[in-house]
């Protein structure tokens, strides 16, 4: 199982990823997690998303969370490798705190990029889960996850 959690800033991706990872490790004990926030400052957005797109080629089980995933998914799809970048994309768009104008601009940019990639993700066989108007509970996500036996 290869899971990407993405969306705009301050929508609860990191917090949710920690809870999901704990639950998923019951079924996939070796599941690893990578937070794209760890890449901030190491390179520019383009380099970060290119590096992340390469991570999608690694065998699972893994979970990658963060805002950089939106651009990385687009880069992966643009390469047209004939493979899917992951099994599941979980997209959050509902901020859990008030955003600054810069964060709101980033949220809108992420939304635009995701909307452009969504059809290609689904055509590649990626399950896309999205909650645009609220932050789901862990149970709500797991009920819609493929291959979930929990």
Major pleated sheet:
5 strands, parallel
Order of helices and strands: EHEHEHEHEH
Structural class: alpha/beta
CATH architecture term: 3-Layer(aba) Sandwich
Helix-residue proportion: 40-55%
What is the CATH first-level class name? Alpha Beta
CATH superfamily: P-loop containing nucleotide triphosphate hydrolases
Q: How many domains would you count in the coordinates?
A: 1
Shape: globular
CATH topology: Rossmann fold
Mean pLDDT comes to 87
Radius of gyration: 14 Å
Strand order of the largest sheet: 2-3-1-4-5
- How far apart are the first and last residues' alpha carbons, in Å? 14 Å
The number of helical elements comes to 5
Beta-strand proportion: 15-25%
According to DSSP, the number of beta strands is: 5
Sequence stretches where pLDDT stays below 50 over 5 or more residues: none
Descriptive account of the structure:
This protein is an alpha/beta fold and 150 residues long. It has one domain (2-144): 3-Layer(aba) Sandwich (Rossmann fold). It is built from 5 helices and 5 strands. It has helices spanning 13-24, 45-55, 69-79, 101-123, 138-144; strands at residues 2-7, 32-35, 62-65, 88-92, 127-131. α4 (101-123) links the parallel β4 and β5 (127-131). It is globular.
């Amino acid at each position: 199982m290869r899971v990407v959690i993405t969306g705009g800033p301050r929508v609860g991706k990191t917090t949710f990823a920690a809870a999901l990872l704990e639950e998923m490790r019951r079924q996939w004990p070796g599941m690893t997690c990578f937070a794209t926030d760890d890449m901030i400052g190491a390179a520019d957005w383009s380099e970060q998303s290119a590096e992340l797109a390469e991570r999608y080629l690694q065998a699972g089980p893994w979970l990658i969370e963060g805002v950089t995933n939106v651009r990385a998914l687009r880069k992966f799809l643009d390469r047209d490798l004939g493979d899917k970048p992951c099994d599941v994309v979980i997209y959050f768009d509902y901020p859990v705190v008030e955003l600054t104008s810069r964060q709101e601009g980033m949220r809108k940019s992420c939304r635009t990029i995701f909307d452009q990639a969504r059809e290609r993700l689904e055509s590649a066989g990626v399950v896309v889960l999205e909650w645009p108007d609220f932050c789901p509970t862990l149970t709500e996500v797991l009920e819609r996850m493929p291959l979930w036996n929990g």
